[in-house]
TrEMBL record:
UniProt superkingdom: Bacteria
EC number: 2.7.1.21
EC top class named in words: transferase
Catalytic activity: thymidine + ATP = dTMP + ADP + H(+)
Metal-binding found in the keyword field: yes
Transmembrane regions listed in the UniProt entry: none
GO BP, sorted A to Z: DNA biosynthetic process; thymidine metabolic process
Keyword S-adenosyl-L-methionine: no
Protein name as annotated: Thymidine kinase
Length: 196
């Protein structure tokens, strides 16, 4: 029975690496996968996923208006063979409607769906896609990384171009190591003192 999975973590935990490795495992066995990434996350190029350790893959760029279920149905009917698994990177950027589309891919089409993303933003608030995935995913899997103190990192802070801590701003601002640092809750709270 196919299920909807949500692998969540802070920044720099290896989520994209895990996704690319899992998709490779399917493809190595002759099975076709569909890989999605948010269209505005173009750090590796539009419609491209890249990990910090150098793994890369083409992906289908999606925005909030795209119907992911319809896309997977069309791919399955295009003559190139059935889709064995669906992968979504940066799943926090999914809309609630798209999370339900992914659930229907698992439930009605019998295709496993593996999503990877952040649970919370730099202010400690849930992203809409993460909120919906936490509510309805069949399996929740935490991908762990560590704070500088050695404790499990569960929070992230945002830095500006000068390396100064940012306490307010838009929830979505794409970036990597130069912009985000993962911390345990205690050290995040120490840095964000007075915010929460």
């Amino acid at each position: 029975m196919a299920e909807l999975y949500f692998h969540y973590a802070t920044m720099n935990a290896g989520k994209s690496t895990m996704l690319l490795q899992a998709s490779y495992n399917y493809r190595e066995r002759g099975m076709r996968t569909a890989i999605f990434i948010a269209a505005f996350d173009d750090r590796a190029g539009r419609g491209r996923i890249s990990s910090r350790i150098g793994l890369q893959s083409d992906a289908i760029a999606f925005d909030a208006n795209d119907d992911l279920q319809a896309t997977v149905e069309a791919m399955g009917a295009d003559g190139d063979g059935p889709i064995a698994c669906v992968f979504v990177d940066e799943a926090q950027f999914l809309s609630e409607r798209q999370v339900w589309q992914l659930a229907r891919i698992a439930d009605r089409m019998g295709i496993p769906v593996m999503t990877y993303g952040l649970r919370t933003d730099f202010q400690g608030k849930l992203f809409p896609g993460s909120n919906a995935l936490l509510a309805i995913a069949d399996e929740l899997r935490e991908v762990r990384t560590i704070c500088h103190c050695g404790r499990k990192a569960t929070m992230v802070v945002r830095l500006d171009a000068n390396g100064t801590l940012v306490r307010e701003g838009a929830q979505v601002e794409v970036g990597g190591n130069e912009k985000y640092v993962s911390y345990c809750r205690r050290h995040w709270d120490d840095l964000m003192q007075g915010y929460s």
